[in-house]
Structure formats: structure tokens, C-alpha cells
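ESCALATION

Customer reports they have been waiting on this structure for their group meeting. Please prioritize. Original submission:
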Amino acid sequence: MILVVGATGQLGGLIARMLLDQGKPVRILVRPASAYEPLVAAGARAVTGDLKDPDSLVAACQGVDAVVTTANSVSRGGEDTVASVDDAGNANLIEAAAAASVRHFVFTSALGADPEHLMPFLKAKGQTERRLRTSGMTWTVLQPNLYMDTWIPAVVGPALARQPVTLVGEGLRQHSMVAARDVASYAVTAIDHPEALGQTLFIGGAHPVTWRDVVCAFEAELGREIPVRTIEPGEPVPGLPEVVKPLLAALDTYDSPMDMTQLSAQYGVRPTTLLEFVHGFVTTSRQAAGWARGAPMRGRLQR
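Update from on-call: job pushed to the front of the queue and completed.
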């Protein structure tokens, strides 16, 4: 039995479905209000629990061979904070898994995680990694670079609505952005991969890209020029949450290129290219927009 924590999120959902497609028995930790029914319909077994509730984790880990967790406090709010979820919550999960004699624990961290990091999120990730290494379980840590699925729609997505794209700085820093489906493939493979035991996997995309490269990829896909404006670090970014502002500013201070040739061959994961991701994103967005425009008409015809 494999327990997936965070299965109602994008990355965790991809992992759960990949495991189910392989015929693996999957248990998912869910909260009552979460939308987990499609995974249950696909064959997953749901167990109610919360990282903030240690007793619920004890029950969830019983009879489990491996744990894969992607859960974090990003976009949650309320009582779900970095301190309660990414720090204490992950500590609760590691303790429960170790007590249940879980064989292998796969933890989704983030590139740059460090127990002494000044950014609370990366500090909590680093502290969790340190706890995991001393837990007595075999473990694998995934440290993905920037998620294409999160950052590209947020920064360049407005181009679909013919809105200008705002870049912090000149947009010339190189980062190995990675697709969530690639990270999911590494997580699933790592569960039974002998070379993954006790390893930290640093995961990036096919090639390092700049924000200017991303804009060019959208221009090629859309067949038109995209207006771009640049702002200085610290200035507000239209349409984006305040919490994103310092992160975008930080991205303009360093490069994070990664050569994935060896790791992708070792784990059999072909990195998604920028052009592939942009094509899929634009296609899906157009299909969704077409459905939204067509739905009212269908409703009128039915009446």
C-alpha cells in the first residue's frame, strides 16, 4: 500500500493517478471538504486526516509500505501555515510513518531548501529533510526547480487575454523550470528505484530558460507579438498576490541552470520542453474558454 499525502493538489493528484495506472494499491489522505471523489472512482482508498492531527496520521500510516507527500501550505490560508503544515505537520507525518514501520518515505521539497534559510517556507522544507534523514526510514528527497505549471500561467498567462506581460527586472535570468508531470514521474519511479534510497534528486526541465524565452514561446504558439513591460524589484505586480512579489524579485538575482541528462536517463523521465508545455497550456486554456462560451448557449437551447 502506498499512501499519497497531498493527492487533492495538482502534483499529488498526478502521482496518485500514475500509481493507479500502474495497478498499485493507493491510499490518499484527505480532508472532508476536499474534492477527492474522482480519485476514489479511479481506485484510490480515501482515509480522513490532517497533517495537523497526529492521531489521524497514525491511522493513515497503518499497513503502508511507502509514503509519498507533496502537501504544503501554499494557497491554503487560515490555520494552514508554514509553521503548522510545512514544519510541524511534516514532523507529525514522519513520526507516524516511522512508528508504523513504513519502508520508504518520498518527500517533495524545493530547490534551495535549507534548515537555516531566511525564507520560512524553504527553512521548513530544510528542517523536514533533516528530520527525515534521521528518522530510521529509507528516504528520497525531491528538490524540484520552479514549476512551469505554477509560474508560467501566473506571469505570462495574461497574454492569452491580450493583456501585457509584466516582468520583474529584465527577465534574462536562466532557470530550469520543470513540469509537474515530470516531478510526479520521478516521485513514482523513486518508490521502488534502488538508486533512489537515501538520495536527494535535484530536478529541472529540459533546458534552462529565461522569462524572455517564455514570452517568445507564447508568441510562437499564439502567432502574435506580446507586449512586455518591466518593473523594478519591489514594485507591485498587477494581478498577482502580494506574496509573489518578493519571489519574483528574488528570481531576478540568480540563475539556476540544471543539466538533467544523467538523472533523466537514470530514472527514465524525458523532460518536458518549454514549447511542449506552452502548447499544452494554450490548447487547454482555449478548450476551457470555448466550453465556457458555449455553456450558456447550450443552456438556452435546453430551456
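Sent to customer with the following note: The beta strands are 2-5, 26-30, 45-48, 66-69, 104-108, 138-144, 165-168, 199-203, 228-231.
Escalation resolved.
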